Structure formats: structure tokens, C-alpha cells
């Protein structure tokens, strides 16, 4: 049987390195908030012109937060100052210059809605943490299980947030409502993986009551490792396909899910369980 706990300093060292890098970026640069949080407008147009020619023409008419290619001859414009009147004026100008302009979608989000989304996101995360703590403490009759699961969940959250903070600096990636959805989805995945391991520890505790807790933990990790990797690989391959073949509008949402899936698969056996063993030793 592999002594997984013996390598805990490697796991903790890797996690600490990633968390410090991401944490430094979060503290110094923060996150690039998208229009869902700051308010503004999103306009998707189909124009028979290259981005290099289109961008100067748009910048002459309105402020440009970002301008991305979504598909062949389709572009997504995000702007804080684009209202309905300016949208009509912009399309008339582009139609005169390039011809054949077609509006695919236009949406405006007020700053009040953006602030409300931030508030609801924070409340949702707080309630999720509270419910997980209570549920795991009740299910395993030990609050230590809940604390370690939440720490692993926070580990995964910070990995995603730190990564997107860095992407915001170098690739101007913004976070939006889809990003919040991805983070909440990954938190549930992380906790689910951890609960599977905890259940196996509880079962082995009943079957091998003579073993020390660290031995039960090592046994449980070994017994669930193959299943966990296989399950995660099916998700990872699907997400990789979506990232490569999907459109630009969902690319960063898929990347957040991909990073979170990898981090969640890692954190359950290599963060949650080693922390649980350490807590049990001190207890």
C-alpha cells in the first residue's frame, strides 16, 4: 500500500506555490470585471471586414472595453458607454464604411444590476460554505471533516481566481456571470470528490478498526484513486474539446471549468485528506 501521507510536504508545497503566485496577482492586479459586474453594453455584429480595419472605426464612435472575433466576420463589442442611440449611429457608420452590417444581439446591463450580482455571488458562496460545514459535520459526526473539505474547496476557488487574475493581466480576460457559474460548479465537484474519499475512510474505519487513521487514509486514497482519475479524465477530455472547438463566448467559461476540475481532482486526495490526518493527529 502506498504511503500517500509521506509526500504531504510535496503536495502542500505545490499548492502553496500556486496559491502565493495567484494570491499576489489578486492583491496587486485584482480581477478584470466584465460588463455583468460593472454595467455597460454588449453588441455582436456581423461585418464583412477584418478586425484591424473595424477597430479604429468603432473606437472613433464609442469607448471600447473589448472587441473580439466570435466567428467568421462576427465581432463582439463590449462598451461602458454604448446606448441604443449610439448603437444605431455606430451601425450606420459601419454600414457606410464596410456595408452589409447585421446586428446579432445587443444587451445593456445597468451598474445597479452589476452590484446586485456581486452581492448575490458573495452571499451564495457564504451559504454554500456554511451548508457544507453543517452537512459534513452531521454526516460524519465530526466537524473536522467539514473544515478540511471547506479548506480544499477554498484551495480550488483561489486557484481559479488567481489564474484568471493573471489571465486578466496578460490576455485581458474578464470575468462575468458565466465565470461565477463555473466557480460554483467546481466547488460542488470538489466537495463531491472529497465526500467520496471521506465515505471510503469511514467504511475502512469499520472494516479495519485496528489500523491507525493515517493507514486508513492511505488505504482509502489508493482504493479511490483510479475511479477519481477516470471520472475526471472523461470531464477533462470533453472540456478540452469544447475549449478547442467551441466559440469565443464560452471559451473562458470552459477554461475555468477545466482548471477547477484538475484542481478539484488534485485537492481531494492531496489537500483534504492530508489536512484531515494532521487535524486528527493534533486532536
UniProtKB/TrEMBL annotation:
Q: Where is the Protein export membrane protein SecD/SecF C-terminal domain?
A: 94-281
Membrane topology of this protein? Multi-pass membrane protein
> What is an example of a GO molecular function annotated in this UniProt entry?
protein-transporting ATPase activity
Q: Which Pfam families match?
A: Sec_GG, SecD_SecF_C
Asked if the keyword Electron transport belongs to this entry, the reply reads no
| UniProt keyword annotation of Repressor present | no
Q: Name one GO biological process term.
A: protein transport by the Sec complex
From the record, give the transmembrane residue ranges. Answer: 9-27, 121-138, 145-171, 177-198, 229-246, 252-279
Question: Which terms in the GO cellular component ontology are assigned?
Answer: plasma membrane
- InterPro entries on file: SecD/SecF_arch_bac, SecD/SecF_bac, SecD/SecF_CS, SecD_SecF_C, SecF_bac
Q: Which Gene3D superfamilies match?
A: Multidrug efflux transporter AcrB transmembrane domain
What are the UniProt keywords, alphabetically?
Cell membrane, Membrane, Protein transport, Translocation, Transmembrane, Transmembrane helix, Transport
Q: What is its main location?
A: membrane
Report the locations given in the UniProt record. Answer: Cell membrane
Q: Which PANTHER family match?
A: PROTEIN TRANSLOCASE SUBUNIT SECF, PROTEIN-EXPORT MEMBRANE PROTEIN SEC
Q: What is stated as this protein's family in its record?
A: Belongs to the SecD/SecF family. SecF subfamily.
Q: How does it assemble?
A: Forms a complex with SecD. Part of the essential Sec protein translocation apparatus which comprises SecA, SecYEG and auxiliary proteins SecDF. Other proteins may also be involved.
Q: What does this protein do?
A: Part of the Sec protein translocase complex. Interacts with the SecYEG preprotein conducting channel. SecDF uses the proton motive force (PMF) to complete protein translocation after the ATP-dependent function of SecA.
The name under which this protein is listed is Protein-export membrane protein SecF
Amino acid at each position: 500500500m502506498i504511503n500517500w501521507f509521506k509526500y504531504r510536504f510535496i503536495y502542500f508545497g505545490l499548492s502553496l506555490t500556486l496559491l502565493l503566485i495567484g494570491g499576489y496577482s489578486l492583491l496587486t492586479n485584482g480581477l478584470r470585471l466584465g460588463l455583468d459586474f460593472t454595467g455597460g453594453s454588449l453588441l455582436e455584429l456581423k461585418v464583412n471586414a477584418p478586425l484591424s480595419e473595424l477597430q479604429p472605426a468603432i473606437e472613433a464612435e464609442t469607448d471600447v472595453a473589448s472587441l473580439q472575433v466570435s466567428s467568421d466576420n462576427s465581432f463582439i463589442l463590449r462598451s461602458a458607454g454604448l446606448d441604443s442611440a449610439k448603437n444605431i449611429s455606430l451601425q450606420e457608420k459601419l454600414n457606410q464604411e464596410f456595408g452589409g452590417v447585421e446586428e446579432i444581439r445587443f444587451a445593456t446591463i445597468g451598474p445597479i444590476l452589476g452590484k446586485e450580482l456581486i452581492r448575490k455571488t458573495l452571499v451564495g458562496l457564504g451559504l454554500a460554505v456554511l451548508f457544507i460545514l453543517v452537512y459534513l459535520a452531521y454526516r460524519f459526526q465530526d466537524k473536522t471533516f467539514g473544515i478540511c473539505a471547506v479548506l480544499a474547496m477554498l484551495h480550488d476557488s483561489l486557484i481559479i481566481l488567481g489564474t484568471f487574475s493573471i489571465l486578466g493581466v496578460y490576455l485581458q480576460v474578464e470575468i462575468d456571470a458565466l465565470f461565477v457559474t463555473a466557480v460554483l460548479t467546481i466547488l460542488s465537484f470538489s466537495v463531491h470528490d472529497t465526500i467520496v474519499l471521506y465515505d471510503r475512510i469511514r467504511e475502512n474505519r469499520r472494516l479495519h478498526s485496528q489500523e491507525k487513521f493515517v493507514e486508513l487514509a492511505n488505504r482509502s486514497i489508493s482504493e479511490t484513486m483510479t475511479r477519481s482519475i477516470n471520472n475526471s479524465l472523461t470531464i477533462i477530455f470533453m472540456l478540452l474539446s469544447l475549449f478547442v472547438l467551441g466559440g469565443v463566448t464560452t471559451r473562458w467559461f470552459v477554461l475555468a471549468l477545466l482548471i477547477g476540475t484538475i484542481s478539484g481532482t488534485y485537492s481531494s486526495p492531496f489537500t483534504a485528506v492530508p489536512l484531515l490526518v494532521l487535524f486528527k493527529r493534533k486532536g
